[in-house]
Amino acid sequence: MAERITGHTELIGLIAYPIRHSSSPAMHNEAFAKLGLDYAYLAFEVGNEELEDTIKGFRAMKVRGSNVSMPNKTVVHKYLDKVSEAAELCGAVNTIVNDNGVLTGHITDGIGYMEALKDAGINIIGKKMTIVGAGGAATAIEIQAALDGVKEISIFNRKDEFYARAEKTVKDINEKTNCKATLYDLTDLDKLKEEIKDSYIFTNATGMGMKPLEGQTYIPDPSFLRPDLIVVDVVYSPRETALLKMAKEVGCKTMNGLGMMLFQGAAAFKLFTGKDMPIEHMKKVLDIKY
Ligand code: NAD
C-alpha cells in the first residue's frame, strides 16, 4: 500500500454505520492492485446525521465515488444530482459516481444478482421467478429482473412493515416494465407451492436462514421443490442455508449470496473505473464459491 499511494491516487469511499465489518474495502483494493489502477477504497463510519456534509465533502474534494450502505441507502438520493432508473424504482442508492462534479446514484445489488446467475450459466430472461422478500435486497432483485426482461415474478412476503413496499414494487413493475408481477402473503403456503411449481427459479431474498434464523426455512417440506428448479438464497453466511441444503437434497441447481455480493461490487467497480473487475482472481483471493 505504501508503494501504491501517491499524490495522484483517487479516493473511493464507503459510507455506512456500522461498517467496520465490511469486506468491500478488501475486495476493491485487491482489484485495484491487481489491475494497477491508481485508486484507494476506504470505509467511513457515517450515519444519516453526517450524510449531507459527507456528500458536500465528496464534491469539494472531487472524490471519484462511493458505495453506500445502511442507514444511508434510502436517504442519500436527496443530496445527489441524478439517480438511475433502477435506483429510482428501488428508492435506494448503493453506488455514487462523481463525473466532473455531477453526482449520480446507482443501485447495483440487482445487477449483482443477475450477473451472478449469468456467471453460473443460468438465463432467466423470459422466464418466471418466484421470490420471497420485500426489503432492500429483494426489491433490487425484483426491479432489475423486471427491467432485464424476466417474464413473470410472483412475490411473497409476510404481512410485516415491508409488505407495503412490495405493493409499491409490484405496481411499479406492472406499470413501467413488460414483466407481470403479483404479490402474495407468505402465510399462504398452498399458493407458494403452486407458484413455485411453474417457476424456473425460486429465490429467498430475506434474512431467513441467517442468524438469528440460522437453520430455519419457511419451506415446510421438499415436495415444494423439484430437481429442475433453480434455487437461490441471497444469504451468504452461512454459505449453505437450510433452504439450500433441502434444495441440494432434492437435486436442484443452487446458488448462495456470495455471487450477488461479488457482482454488485464488480458493477460498482465498473462504474468507478470503467474497467471489469478481475472476477476469477477475486473468487480465488476471497475464497468465493457459490
Ligand atoms: P431488510 O431488512 O431490508 O429486509 C428483510 C426482509 O426479510 C423483509 O422482506 C422481511 O419481511 C423478511 N423477513 C424478516 N424476518 C422474516 C421471517 N422470520 N420470516 C420471513 N421473512 C422475514 O434486509 P435486506 O437488506 O433486504 O437483507 C435481507 C437478506 O439479504 C439478509 O440476509 C442479507 O444478508 C442478504 N443480502 C445479501 C446481499 C448479497 O449481496 N448477497 C445483499 C444484500 C442483502
From TrEMBL:
EC number(s) given by UniProt: 1.1.1.25
Q: Which reaction does it catalyse?
A: L-quinate + NAD(+) = 3-dehydroquinate + NADH + H(+); shikimate + NAD(+) = 3-dehydroshikimate + NADH + H(+); shikimate + NADP(+) = 3-dehydroshikimate + NADPH + H(+)
Per UniProt, NADP(+) binds at 85, 133-137, 234, 257
Provide the top EC class.
Answer: oxidoreductase
Keyword Disulfide bond applies: no
Superkingdom in the source lineage: Bacteria
Q: Name one GO biological process term.
A: shikimate metabolic process
Q: Which GO terms describe its molecular function?
A: NADP binding; quinate 3-dehydrogenase (NAD+) activity; shikimate 3-dehydrogenase (NAD+) activity; shikimate 3-dehydrogenase (NADP+) activity
Q: Which residue numbers delimit the SDH C-terminal domain?
A: 257-286
Q: Annotated pathway, please?
A: Metabolic intermediate biosynthesis; chorismate biosynthesis; chorismate from D-erythrose 4-phosphate and phosphoenolpyruvate: step 4/7; Aromatic compound metabolism; 3,4-dihydroxybenzoate biosynthesis; 3-dehydroquinate from D-quinate (NAD(+) route)
The alphabetical list of record keywords is: Amino-acid biosynthesis, Aromatic amino acid biosynthesis, NADP, Oxidoreductase
Domain Shikimate dehydrogenase substrate binding N-terminal, residue spans = 14-96
User: Is Amino-acid biosynthesis one of the keywords?
Assistant: yes
Which residues catalyse the reaction? 73
Q: Which residues bind shikimate?
A: 22-24, 69, 94, 109, 236, 264
The protein's matches in SUPFAM superfamilies, at most eight in alphabetical order, are given as: Aminoacid dehydrogenase-like, N-terminal domain, NAD(P)-binding Rossmann-fold domains
> What family is reported?
Belongs to the shikimate dehydrogenase family.
Give the quaternary structure: Homodimer.
UniProt-listed PANTHER family: BIFUNCTIONAL 3-DEHYDROQUINATE DEHYDRATASE_SHIKIMATE DEHYDROGENASE, CHLOROPLASTIC, SHIKIMATE DEHYDROGENASE
Function, please? Involved in the biosynthesis of the chorismate, which leads to the biosynthesis of aromatic amino acids. Catalyzes the reversible NADPH linked reduction of 3-dehydroshikimate (DHSA) to yield shikimate (SA).
Report what the protein is called: Shikimate dehydrogenase (NADP(+))
